[in-house]
């Protein structure tokens, strides 16, 4: 079942949707989409900054649900913008706006690859029980060439966290908020891929009829749509409830849904779906990264079990 937003939340969502819709066109060269794995949402970012949306979670009467609306709706765009860390995790964890872009990382991720680390001004590092707030000024980051539709970077030297600000006892809260952001971004990417594919199969003709007229295609896309909405509402519930268990389950369900949704959408788009000129990769390439973030589904499943049954052997 769906749950209704308050009138204020609905008005907020409509305003965000208008900004996203006005700034979702992929850059083109000679009428053809530029063949790049990642397209930054520069104009959309400016619109959100000018409207004060990035500090939404700190506004009176607002909080995790309002920030979740922003993260989800923006992630439906084929253009990429860092919002999970800056608009949801950082303000709710520290109760202040940190210099952005904000990247989220585990200690072991820093020398290997982190989303938005290239260009980040702040990194929130999961150190177990505590969180390190790492100022990136003067730190060398190597940008990674990747097929994941996110700008990735890694520290060129071993991470030195001795000078970082510490937030004792905040590790669990960081993971809770990070999982909500992860689930929202995955839900949006899956939803956008399914919508894109649904429109495509209505137009693509085989054997003299649209691909989408075949019952097998309809059934699989319907099942994928159910997965997308399930992840979305689990993430929104986790944002509303503040429960670490809800957040772990949302991230777990998101990462488990990714393989089937990615497989179906690429199969129904055919060979065209494998090209960078076709917009499908803008979402499915992201999903390949999100599927393993924070250690993947096994980590979320193990944490969910511990949270659900803390006294079990």
What sort of overall outline do the alpha carbons produce when their principal axes are compared? globular
Determine the structural class based on helices, strands and strand pairing.
alpha+beta
Distance between the termini: 35 Å
Number of strands: 11
Mean pLDDT: 93
**So how many helices?**
9
Low-confidence stretches: none
CATH class of the domain at 172-308: Mainly Alpha
Q: What's the arrangement of strands in the largest beta sheet? A: 3-5-6-9
- Looking at the overall shape, the CATH architecture of the domain at 172-308 is Up-down Bundle
Strand-residue proportion: 5-15%
CATH superfamily name of the domain at 172-308? Butyryl-CoA Dehydrogenase, subunit A, domain 3
Roughly what percent helix? 40-55%
Task: Supply Rg.
Answer: 19 Å
What name does the CATH topology of the domain at 172-308 carry? Answer: Butyryl-CoA Dehydrogenase, subunit A, domain 3
Profile the largest sheet.
4 strands, mixed
Order of helices and strands: HEEHHHEEEEEEEHEEHHHH
């Amino acid at each position: 079942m769906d749950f209704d937003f308050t009138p204020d939340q609905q008005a907020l969502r409509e305003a965000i949707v208008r900004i996203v819709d006005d700034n979702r066109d992929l850059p083109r060269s000679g009428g053809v989409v530029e063949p790049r794995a990642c397209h930054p949402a520069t104009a959309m970012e400016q619109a959100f900054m000018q409207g004060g949306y990035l500090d939404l979670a700190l506004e009176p009467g607002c909080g995790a649900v309002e920030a979740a609306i922003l993260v989800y709706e923006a992630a439906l765009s084929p253009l990429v913008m860092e919002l999970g860390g800056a608009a949801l995790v950082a303000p709710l964890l520290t109760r202040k706006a940190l210099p952005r872009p904000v990247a989220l990382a585990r200690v072991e991720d820093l020398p290997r690859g982190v989303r938005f680390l290239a260009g980040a001004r702040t990194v929130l590092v999961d150190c177990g029980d505590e969180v390190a707030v790492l100022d990136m000024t003067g730190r060398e980051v190597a940008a990674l060439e990747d097929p994941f539709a996110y700008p990735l970077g890694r520290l060129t030297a071993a991470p030195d966290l001795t000078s970082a600000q510490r937030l004792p006892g905040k590790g669990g809260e960081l993971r809770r908020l990070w999982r909500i952001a992860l689930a929202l971004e995955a839900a949006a990417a899956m939803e956008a891929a399914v919508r894109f594919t649904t429109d495509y199969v209505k137009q693509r003709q085989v054997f003299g009829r649209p691909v989408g007229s075949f019952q097998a295609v309809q059934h699989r896309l319907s099942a994928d749509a159910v997965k997308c909405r399930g992840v979305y509402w689990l993430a929104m519930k986790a944002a509303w409830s503040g429960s670490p268990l809800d957040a772990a389950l949302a991230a777990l369900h998101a990462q488990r849904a990714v393989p089937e949704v990615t497989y179906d959408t690429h199969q129904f788009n055919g060979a065209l779906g494998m090209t960078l000129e076709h917009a499908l990769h803008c979402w499915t390439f992201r999903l390949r990264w999100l599927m393993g973030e924070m250690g993947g589904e096994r980590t979320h499943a193990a944490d969910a079990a511990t949270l659900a049954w803390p006294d079990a052997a």
